Amino acid sequence: MDPLPPRLHRDVVSFVRRSTRMNESQVRSWTRHHDEFVVTVPRAELSTSIAADARVDWASEFGRSAPLIVEIGSGGGDSLVPMAAGRPGSDVVAFEVFEPAVASALGRIARDGATNVRLVVADGAQGLATLFDDGAVSELWTFFADPWHKKRHHKRRLVGRDFADVVVNKLAPGGLWRLATDWEDYALWMREHLDGAPLLENIHGGWAPRLAERPVTKYEAKGLAAGRTVYDLTYRRRDAPQD
């Protein structure tokens, strides 16, 4: 019997749920575009959790079969929307727990005509583990995840070996995991946990060059203005060894 695929077991989450109060513009975007671009999934106990038996037919959601890209922590869509618009041949599923940010992203999607985007208001790590078939994802984007600086909070960090096992399972062979952070300690943590993962290859052997299609967001610009360095990484899913 084949072994069961690894599941993501997390009793903590890698984010803080902020206020859900929206401004008038966000309310309008949410009202006008929610039904077209937001995918509602069954919940578990928490408002951001996903039921273990939740399933999504992504080809049906997008009305076509195309390579799937997943972004975890899309914020207001500052990088998501232009990057998705630049990949019209792919479909992009973005996870974000902050509803006002999702509303802002909806406005950007509508303005830019990025119809190849769907948003899920839920825990992205859990969503990746639950809502995608093994080998179904062509790329994963995790840009500027919360660094959780204090040592006692490191267990909340998104990137780690448990999550890497899930990523390996969901990426197609040859699929890419693109990461970026502007905190050196988190960048080194990522290298420590991912460089040794058996089925992940650091394709640059170290830090990756900046992904040209990723725009400089307000968040990133603020970090650069504060003197921080942005670290990019790109990992490729290796083929599993044959028995």
Summarize the structure in words.
- This protein is an alpha/beta fold and 243 residues long.
- It has a single domain, classed as Vaccinia Virus protein VP39 (Rossmann fold, 3-Layer(aba) Sandwich), CATH 3.40.50.
- It contains 8 helices and 7 strands.
- A 7-stranded mixed β-sheet has the order 3-2-1-4-5-7-6.
- Strand 2, helix 4 and strand 3 form a beta-alpha-beta unit.
- Helix 1 crosses helix 4.
- The longest helix is centred in the N-terminal third of the chain and has 14 residues.
- It starts with 23 loop residues before the first helix and ends in a 6-residue tail after the last strand.
- 36% of the residues are buried.
Helix-strand blueprint:
Layout: H1 24-37, H2 58-62, E1 68-72, H3 80-85, E2 91-95, H4 99-112, E3 117-120, H5 124-131, E4 137-143, H6 161-170, E5 171-181, H7 184-194, E6 200-202, H8 218-225, E7 231-237
Parallel strand pairs: 1-2, 1-4, 2-3, 4-5
Antiparallel strand pairs: 5-7, 6-7
